[in-house]
Design brief:
With 188 residues, this protein is α/β, with parallel strands linked by helices. The protein has a single domain (5-58, 107-185), classed as Dihydrofolate Reductase, subunit A (3-Layer(aba) Sandwich). 20% of the residues lie in helices and 32% in strands. It has helices at residues 32-44, 95-101, 115-124, 155-161; strands at 5-12, 17-19, 47-51, 66-69, 77-79, 82-88, 108-111, 128-133, 142-143, 164-173, 178-185. The chain has a nine-stranded mixed beta sheet with strand order 5-6-4-3-7-1-8-11-10, sandwiched between helices. Strand 5 (77-79) and strand 6 form a beta hairpin.
Length: 188
């Protein structure tokens, strides 16, 4: 079975945070133009991957095929709360087995967070990571990647360290200075 195209999606504060310190997504971080870009991208994806406490929300969430990362299982299992989802512990089962369990021939796997999930897929390998930036401040929140904020480490430094390069930036909403950066592997 062919490996999917792996795409990451995150909106971050100016400090590189995806959530408040309590793990909740602050509404002031949500931008309508970015949210429209995000939801349209997920509609095109073959499946979604997220942590137990992260998901995209909305009426389509339960309808989408998905992989949910959790340490609460040792083997791949159907999520009892969602028959379209499988529970995956990356510490006990390789990613390829989790992907094969969805029975999707190829396509796009959209990675939507949280911190540890985004970090894990840095090692598995992103084909593209869409990093939406805002001017919203969340000084002590949950970082997009493990290590962001530690000793001033930025998301850009983490991505570069993992072989990603900035391919371009597109303005989504000039009024709020919300823009999306496209990061991808240095070599194709």
């Amino acid at each position: 079975m062919k490996r999917p195209r792996i795409e990451g999606y995150a909106v971050i504060s100016k400090e590189g945070m995806i959530a408040a310190s309590d793990g909740h997504f602050p509404e002031h971080l949500k931008n309508p133009a970015d949210h429209a870009f995000y939801m349209a991208s997920l509609d095109k994806a073959s499946a979604i991957v997220n942590g137990r406490h992260s998901a995209e929300g909305g009426e389509k969430e339960k309808q989408r095929r998905r992989i949910v990362l959790t340490r609460r299982v040792n083997m791949l299992a159907v999520d009892p709360a969602n028959p379209n989802a499988i529970l995956w512990n990356p510490g006990s089962t390789p990613f390829d087995e989790a992907w094969q369990r969805l029975r999707i021939e190829d396509g796009v796997l959209a990675v939507v967070g949280g911190t540890d999930v985004f970090g894990l897929f840095l090692t598995i390998g992103y084909d593209v990571f869409y990093l939406s930036r805002t001017d919203v401040s969340i000084p002590r929140g949950r970082p997009v990647f493990p290590g962001v904020g530690t000793r001033g480490t930025t998301p850009e430094e983490i991505m570069k360290k993992n072989g990603l390069v900035l391919r371009g930036t597109r303005m989504l909403d000039e009024a709020t200075n919300c823009r999306v950066e496209e990061w991808g592997p240095a070599k194709r």
